[in-house]
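Fill in residues.
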């Protein structure tokens, strides 16, 4: 018999990250030293650091674009196509020797998986409970997912009594809305919205949407104290570049006690790597709970598609011990693929593909309105979290991400964004009001790639302006600055954001 549960966003939004860690949770201290074993780092020289400090300095004026500002992904920047594959291009400086593996990775990313047993043995092993049949059905054209359908998933956990979380005893760490023949999906989602009017300066108004999530649960109620977190899939571009930003540079931006008194207190999420067994800086997912592209990809294969990988070798995905029929179902692992459904070779090409999706070049960086909007972005305090530019590590034997000036507009840190966007669900070191600063590169291409607009962790915002107006907590002052702008200034700010 189905159980009915209602979770409302109202002024309490629900946020999290795609790709939650699947190993036993380890809570680390914020002061834990972090390692970067996934990178072959060549230390910077003193002369290089002087150059880096100079190039990362804030602009002296906004009369013209900064050098290389149009090349958001550095040497990996790709042209700004006019079709819906604008976010699906290989990094411009990807070596020719890696191009075939990149295309093989694309094929794996877009592959439609089927149930086991099947004659298509390279594509079987889906589920038995699952969220989607391919990576690409969530990340539409390598861009964002949208609320409803496969683009939005529901994480779930319960407090462990020691500051961490545990899987729900019945449903695990994620609610699955699909199942193979002969099994029943764990739930169906009924999503509705309440409109919230916002009055802006200059006689303008806006309307926000507060979501309510109705869960038709098929295996009884959630555990006492269960916390849910709806999340849409983020865009895939520039992941390898974010991975190559020096951890020490990101940690230098953290100010957890707000020592400088600017009201912004960025914190790092430090996570235990499932691949390396060491503490690493969390970089990926809405709450920065994954330290590398490979771990993010493997976790998504397991949690979202129910596929086994070298890092998470169980074949049943997120099925719990209480779901014995799910764990006992046929799987797609065989000797030819290391006994796995996604073997090491497949993971290697998927990771290469995910690391090397190019960031499109900026549009109209010299346009007067865009430059004025950029100045307003700085004046409003948005750069306190959305750090415009970084220089990546110099990497031994790697071309695409090595020693690049990039413009992601993110500090990759956690920030308290207020009650309006809180999910009250801890995730690693992130508390229920915090999430990672979302990179803004490609922001103006969301509708072009996906055919619609949807922003924030759960896609509730139908426009960039709505996304800004949901900001609270550490970003409340910046949001109020935008509300108070004259209409022509707000339009210039939005023109800048849409140029990214």
């Amino acid at each position: 018999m189905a159980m009915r549960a209602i979770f409302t966003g109202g002024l309490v939004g629900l946020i999290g990250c795609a790709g939650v860690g699947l190993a036993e949770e380890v809570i680390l201290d914020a002061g834990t030293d972090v390692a970067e074993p996934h990178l072959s780092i060549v230390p910077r020289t003193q002369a290089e650091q002087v150059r880096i400090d100079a190039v990362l300095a804030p602009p002296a004026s906004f009369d013209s674009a900064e050098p290389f500002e149009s090349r958001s992904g550095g040497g990996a920047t790709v042209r700004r196509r006019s079709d819906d594959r604008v976010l699906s291009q290989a990094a411009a400086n990807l070596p020719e020797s890696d191009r075939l593996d990149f295309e093989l990775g694309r094929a794996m990313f877009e592959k439609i998986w089927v149930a086991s047993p099947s004659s298509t043995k390279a594509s079987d092993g889906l589920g038995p409970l699952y969220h989607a049949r391919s990576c690409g059905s969530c990340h539409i054209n390598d861009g964002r997912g949208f609320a409803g359908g496969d683009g939005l998933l529901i994480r779930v956990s319960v407090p462990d009594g020691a500051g961490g979380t545990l899987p729900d005893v019945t449903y695990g760490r994620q609610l699955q809305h699909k199942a193979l023949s002969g099994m029943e999906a764990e739930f169906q989602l009924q999503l509705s919205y309440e409109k919230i009017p916002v009055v802006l300066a200059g006689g303008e108004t806006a309307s926000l949407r507060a979501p309510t999530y109705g869960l038709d649960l098929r295996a009884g109620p959630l555990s006492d104290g269960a916390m849910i977190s709806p999340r849409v899939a983020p865009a895939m571009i520039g992941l390898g570049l974010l991975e190559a930003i020096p951890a020490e540079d990101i940690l230098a931006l953290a100010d957890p006690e707000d020592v400088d008194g600017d009201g912004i207190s960025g914190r790092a999420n430090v996570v235990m790597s499932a691949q390396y067994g060491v503490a690493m800086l969390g970089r990926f997912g809405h709450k920065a709970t994954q330290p590398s592209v490979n771990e993010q990809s493997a976790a998504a294969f397991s949690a979202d598609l129910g596929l086994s990988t070298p890092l998470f070798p169980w074949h049943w995905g997120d099925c719990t011990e209480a779901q014995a029929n799910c764990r006992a179902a046929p799987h797609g692992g065989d000797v030819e693929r290391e006994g796995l459904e996604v073997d090491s070779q497949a993971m290697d090409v998927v990771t290469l593909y995910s690391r090397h999706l190019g960031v499109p070049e900026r549009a109209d960086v010299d346009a007067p309105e865009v430059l004025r909007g950029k100045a307003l972005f700085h004046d409003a305090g948005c750069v306190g979290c959305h750090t415009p530019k970084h220089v990546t590590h110099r990497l031994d034997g790697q071309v695409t991400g090595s020693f690049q000036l990039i413009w992601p507009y993110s500090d990759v840190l956690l920030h308290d964004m207020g009650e309006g966007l809180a999910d009250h669900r801890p995730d690693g070191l992130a508390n229920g009001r915090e999430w990672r600063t979302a990179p803004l590169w490609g922001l103006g291409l969301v509708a072009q790639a996906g055919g619609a607009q949807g922003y924030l962790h759960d896609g509730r915002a139908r426009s960039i302006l709505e996304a800004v107006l949901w900001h609270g907590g550490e970003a409340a002052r910046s949001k109020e600055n935008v509300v108070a702008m004259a209409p022509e200034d707000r339009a210039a700010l939005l023109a800048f954001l849409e140029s990214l």
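The chain has one domain: 3-498.
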